[in-house]
Amino acid sequence: MASLCNVCHKPLSVRRVSPTQPLTASRRFLRQATLRQQPLQSCRKARLQRLYATRGKDDDDVPEGIIEVEQEEEEEDFEDYEEPEDEETQRANQLAELEAADSADAPLPADYKLNFLWFDKTLAIAVDQVMPKGQRSPVTAYFLWPHADAWEELKECLDGKPWVSERDTIILLNRTTEVINYWQEEGDRHELEEARSSFPDCVFQGA
């Protein structure tokens, strides 16, 4: 039964109040984005003014020294902030990285080691992954040169392993090309020890 007014004795109207809506992720994002658009200094000053108002002080009595300190902290925050790279910048950085990897002076990746079996008529090529404490784990099988196109087979094998980066693949293949050319130089057959001396960052074994 509806309640009656104590004065006119008419039924009182009841106004339904909808419950407060929860702050969903999208609404929270919009709220944070709106707050980020406001200057940090004005937000901090407003917070300090509210604090002083609750203590019975006038809004204009907020010490300027505190505002200056807050402004210095704000400037430091902006100095530490790094703007995220856009796609064009990322592509440019990646291209520069690959060009550096294509250089003949690029060192071999620390995570991988090229292995060569050095014989008079055959050069076998493989890649190992360098594990902690100097242990190594095979990444590829041995590919034989010149009985097959070892370079192309090695490339296909490395391309099929997503954890080997494009940069590392380029460096490994470039060094493989250098060793193959060194091994098959016409009129100057190099010995095993010469190969080890010329390419100290690779592993050579042979008879």
Automatic annotation (TrEMBL):
<feature type="region of interest" description="Disordered">
    <location>
        <begin position="72"/>
        <end position="92"/>
    </location>
</feature>
<dbReference type="GO" id="GO:0006412">
    <property type="term" value="P:translation"/>
</dbReference>
<comment type="similarity">
    <text>Belongs to the chloroplast-specific ribosomal protein cS23 family.</text>
</comment>
<keyword id="KW-0687">Ribonucleoprotein</keyword>
<dbReference type="GO" id="GO:0003735">
    <property type="term" value="F:structural constituent of ribosome"/>
</dbReference>
<comment type="subunit">
    <text>Part of the 30S ribosomal subunit.</text>
</comment>
<protein>
    <recommendedName>
        <fullName>30S ribosomal protein 3, chloroplastic</fullName>
    </recommendedName>
</protein>
<dbReference type="InterPro" id="IPR038447">
    <property type="entry name" value="PSRP-3/Ycf65_sf"/>
</dbReference>
<dbReference type="GO" id="GO:1990904">
    <property type="term" value="C:ribonucleoprotein complex"/>
</dbReference>
<keyword id="KW-0689">Ribosomal protein</keyword>
<dbReference type="GO" id="GO:0005840">
    <property type="term" value="C:ribosome"/>
</dbReference>
<dbReference type="Pfam" id="PF04839">
    <property type="entry name" value="PSRP-3_Ycf65"/>
</dbReference>
<feature type="compositionally biased region" description="Acidic residues">
    <location>
        <begin position="72"/>
        <end position="88"/>
    </location>
</feature>
<dbReference type="InterPro" id="IPR006924">
    <property type="entry name" value="Ribosomal_cS23-like"/>
</dbReference>
